[in-house]
Write a structure and sequence with these properties.
mainly beta, Methylamine Dehydrogenase, Chain H
Length: 325
Amino acid sequence: MRFRKTKFIKIVFFILLLFFVIVCCISFLPMGDSPAMEDIYFQAYDNKNIETVIYKYDAQTKTVCEIGKMSGYFHNCKIDREKKYITGVRSAFGPESISDAASTVKFGVVRFSLEEGTSELLRNEQQLWIGNKQQIIWDNTFLFDNCNKICICYEGETLFSMIYDLETKKAQKLALSQRNNCAYDIRNHFIWYFVNDKFIRYNIKTKERKEILCNVSQCFVSDNGEHVAYLGNRAKRIDLYDTTRKKKTCSLKAGWNKVFDSCSSYSCGWDKSGTYFYYIEHFVKFFGSSDIRIKVYNRNTKKSQSIYIKRDRPATTRYEFIRNA
C-alpha cells in the first residue's frame, strides 16, 4: 500500500513537472515571424540653442549616433524611400520669432541631405502664402508622396488645407469638413484629421470620408493605415487599435511619475510593416526636467525595449520621430 502511494506521488509530480516545462516552452515561442527592425530616425529640438539635432538608431549595431544639425525648429519630418533626404518644415517654436530679414533662419519647407550633411530651403513661407489674410499652421502641415508634395493648413476666416506640388508648384484646395479643415497627418492618398472627438480618414482620390475612432484626441497612424495608436488617461496610456479588425489590440501604461510624450503628431511612430511601434516616455523630475526614454514595442512578441536614454533633459527640449514618406 505504501509502495503504491509513493508511486502515485511520483507520477503526479512527473505530470506537474512536464506541464510546467510545456508552459515555459510555449511562453517563449515567438508570436509569428517578425520582420527585421528598421533603422529609426528621430530628432531633438533645443529651444535654448534654437537648433534641431538629428539622430539615427542603427538596428544592426543597436547604437544611436548624431547625424546632423539644423538651425531653428525643424519638425514634421519625413525621410524618402531611398534614405537620402529628410524633408520637413521649419517654423517658430512657441512664442519665438527668428525668421526675419536680418536672420539667416528662414521658415518654410527644408530638405536635409544625409549624404552631404547640408540643408536646402525648398520653398520659403512667403512663397507658400496665397493671400495677405492667411497664416500657415505649420504644426498641421505635412509632406507626402516621397516628400514631393505637401499638405498645408491655412488659417484665415476659416481653417482650410491645400495640397502643394513642390515640383510643378501647383496647388489644389481640399474640402475635408465644414467644422475642421486642418489635417493631422497624411499617408499615401489618405488624409487623417479630427472633427470634434472623431478621427476621420479622407480619401483624396475618391473624396470618401470614414470615421475610424471616436472619443479620442491624439492618434498616430501606421504607414499602411492598418494600425492606429492613441493616447488616454492624460498621456499615461497608449492604446493600439487594428483598423482592419476594428478592435483594440494592446495597451501600454506609463509607470509611477511617468508620462508618454504628446507634444506633436510625430511624438510616436511606426515602421513600414506596422510591426514595430515607437514612443517616448518621460520620467518627470523637478522644474520640468525629465529622463527621456525612446522605446520600441513589437506587436508580435508584445514586448518593449529601450533604444535611447537621455537623463535630465530640460522642458525646452522636444523630441519627435522622423516618419517614412
